[in-house]
Amino acid sequence: ITVKTKYNHPVVPFNMLITTNSGAPRRIWTKNSAKGVKSKKAGFPIMIHYAAPARRHAETTGLSKETLCLWSGDCAKDCIADSGNFEYSVNAKAELQAKATALIMYPERYIYHMYLTALANDPDHSYIKRAEGTSDFGFWQDKWRIINGRSLYEALGDSQCAEYTKRRYPAGAQLPSNLHFTYSWSEHPRCAKWGREWLDAGYSTAVVVRAHPEEPKPRSSAKAVKQLLLDKGEWFGRKVVDGDASEARHKDPKGSIVLLYAKGSLLRATQSRFPVYVDGDTLKPTYLSKGMKL
């Protein structure tokens, strides 16, 4: 019997989504990603949950009305259209798509599965946990407190957790004490205002920087601009930290700007406002509207 969801797509059994074609358990958390390797070398091991965030899973599952990132319309082509700045293999994309489908179709079961596999992969709680590797699902929200009345982060209370988000600061919400947020600059027209809200609340705001789009060596010039800002020590009156050094965002000074240099597709983008173009002489953004500040 074929059961249809409200999106007119056959229901895929949960166990098929969390196992590979060979029947082996599907990898839920990743320890050896590029971010993980870099952060471990810096002394802060991290395990990350990646899932196809926007439209990629829709190509094979038909769940075109669902998304794991609220902002997949604005910056998807430069950031998450392929689940990150770097192209994934066919098998890796299938894994991301399967996990996204499991989370959309069976959110409670999948979140509990994330919890169990996190414990199995890190019984000593020595790894930072990042559940939103390529998504902005909002596992901290009240509606997802389904693990004995706790959210995923609260259930992993002995672990430090850290997330990037493009959501507005949830004033008045009860946020897990072991969870550090870093607001991520986007193309949203209110992103500067929202970034200040997170900064004023004691969290961080991450900004991807690059030099002029016509620079002949965009990668090296992006690195150079970031280093100039780090050497200055502040930007818009806020402390700056090197976001490329590690994933230990919970160690950042409160209210600091996290600088990352543009990579991958962001170096090829010429019209996108997701990366902030910085003048190498004045160290000022070249496109921010009047009154737009961090």
Description:
There is one protein chain. With 294 residues, the protein is an alpha/beta fold. Helices cover 27% and strands 13% of the residues. It is built from eight helices and nine strands. The protein has helices at 14-17, 34-41, 56-61, 90-105, 107-121, 152-155, 191-200, 218-232, and strands at residues 46-48, 128-130, 161-165, 179-184, 204-210, 234-235, 238-242, 257-261, 276-277. The strands form two sheets. Strands 3, 4, 5, 6, 7, 8 and 9 form a seven-stranded mixed beta sheet that branches. The longest helix has 16 residues, at 90-105.
Please bin the fraction of helical residues.
25-40%
Overall strand count = 9
Rg, please? 19 Å
Sheet having the most strands: 7 strands, mixed
> What fraction of residues sit in β-strands?
5-15%
Helix tally equals 8
Instruction: Label the structural class.
Output: alpha/beta
Mean pLDDT: 82
Order of helices and strands: HHEHHHEHEEHEHEEEE
Give the distance, in angstroms, between the N- and C-terminal Cα atoms: 55 Å
Poorly predicted residue ranges:
1-8, 55-64, 76-85
Coarse shape:
globular
